[in-house]
Design goal:
The protein has about 375 residues and is mainly β. It contains two helices and 32 strands. Strand 6 and strand 7 form a beta hairpin. It is globular and about 50 Å long. The termini are far apart.
């Protein structure tokens, strides 16, 4: 008994030395070190805190260039590596209503799509117009895509356009589905393979068109019946090893066998999560498809079989997952209420969490060792240093 008391006394006397030694140790490096906010607006003193009200026209980054919108003006900046503003290159006053989706930046040009259906291509360094095209149907509601000298874009009326990037002339237009008065924006982009393009409509159908002519090769309509109001695809269509992977807002995941004979493509597998899917990320390196839902859950499924691998509640209540992004060692999850989570990519264990205390409605942007989180204002970005 005396020995036990002496041991307790010994540790009690040495406790201050343990605490001192601990304080002298270098702090554990953060996986999401805050770096503050960068403001890429035209009027720095007036823009902070202003709500954009329309999150899908967040600015775009490529190399050291940034093109975005502020207060009705499109602005282009040349940035230094640490994101500080180096030089305002140009300002462009577009049609009333502003941009309807984020600018597309190529090596030499920036493509601007406005809500009235006007598409304008300008020189990236000078802002000088290269060409302007006015579409019959207004409101481009999906990201712009550049492929082999052509621009592809989809409109609210569900028309997919192929446009000559040099002249702005329309090569062909295809009606993917029937126009609807009420729909959601899912940011699904066309995917290209073997001289054809895959696109989707609001009924969840996946269409394959010939690149040269826009002729329909086949359409895949899901064999299951969904009573949900919205059946749109969420996130990107992914093609990997002769299979197509897609996630739908109504909770379905599908893997389509592209080697199926003829136009009747068959499913490798399908799953019903019985939850609204709000974010998805296919990782061919991990052979997994990550899925986030409207009730704050993260799932992972094996690509080859659809086998459930992982199910993780984020414990954030009924808050939707808005973005999933992966790096070499980690993957980051953003919730719509501004909470960010960092997971180990190999073990999928939660390593760190932080709260930006602002809505996050669009995808995160990774630039080198920096993670940029679009704030509600479309020219403000939270900066996080990541390893």
């Amino acid at each position: 008994m005396l020995f036990k008391k002496l041991i307790i006394l010994f540790f009690f006397l040495l406790q201050p030395f343990f605490l001192l030694a601990k304080s002298l140790l270098p702090p554990k490096p953060s996986l999401m070190s805050p770096m503050g906010i960068i403001n890429l607006s035209g009027s720095l003193e007036n823009s902070t805190g202003k709500l954009v009200g329309y999150p899908y026209s967040t600015g775009s980054f490529k190399d050291n260039y940034y093109v975005g919108e502020d207060d009705g003006w499109v602005l282009a900046y040349l940035l230094t590596k640490n994101q500080n503003i180096s030089r305002l290159l140009w300002e462009y006053k577009g049609p009333k209503g502003g941009l309807s989706t984020s600018p597309l930046i190529t090596d030499e040009y920036a493509v601007l799509a406005f809500k009235d259906g006007t598409v304008i291509t300008v020189d990236l360094k000078t802002g000088k117009e290269k060409w302007t095209t006015k579409l019959e149907s207004s409101f481009i509601d999906a990201p712009l895509v550049f492929n082999e000298g052509h621009l592809y874009l989809s409109t609210f009326s569900q028309i997919l356009y192929k446009i000559d990037f040099n002249t702005g002339s329309i090569i062909w237009a295809y009606q993917l589905g029937m126009p609807e008065d009420v729909r959601i924006r899912t940011q699904t982009t066309p995917v290209f393979t073997n001289n054809s393009v895959f696109a989707a409509n609001t009924d969840g159908d996946i269409l394959n068109l010939t690149l040269d002519t826009g002729k329909l090769n086949f359409v895949f309509r899901a064999p299951f019946i969904s009573t949900a109001q919205f059946k749109n695809l969420i996130g990107s269509i992914t093609i990997h090893e002769d299979s197509l992977y897609a996630a739908r807002y109504d909770g379905y995941l599908i893997s389509l066998n592209l080697n199926s004979q003829g136009s009747q493509k068959t499913l490798n597998w399908q799953l019903d999560l019985k939850a609204t899917i709000t974010a998805t990320k296919v990782s061919t390196q991990d052979n997994l498809q990550y899925v986030g839902t409207s009730n704050g859950n993260i799932h992972a499924f094996e690509l080859s079989s659809g086998k459930p691998i992982w199910d993780k509640p984020l414990n954030i209540g009924n808050v939707s997952v808005s973005s999933i992004i992966s790096t070499e060692k980690y993957f980051y999850i953003a919730a719509s209420n501004g909470q960010l989570f960092c997971f180990n990519r190999e073990t999928r264990s939660l390593l760190e969490a932080t709260d930006l205390q602002t809505q996050v409605l669009t995808d995160l942007v990774q630039r080198d060792n920096t993670l940029l989180v679009p704030a509600q204002h479309n020219s403000l970005f939270y900066q996080l240093q990541i390893p």
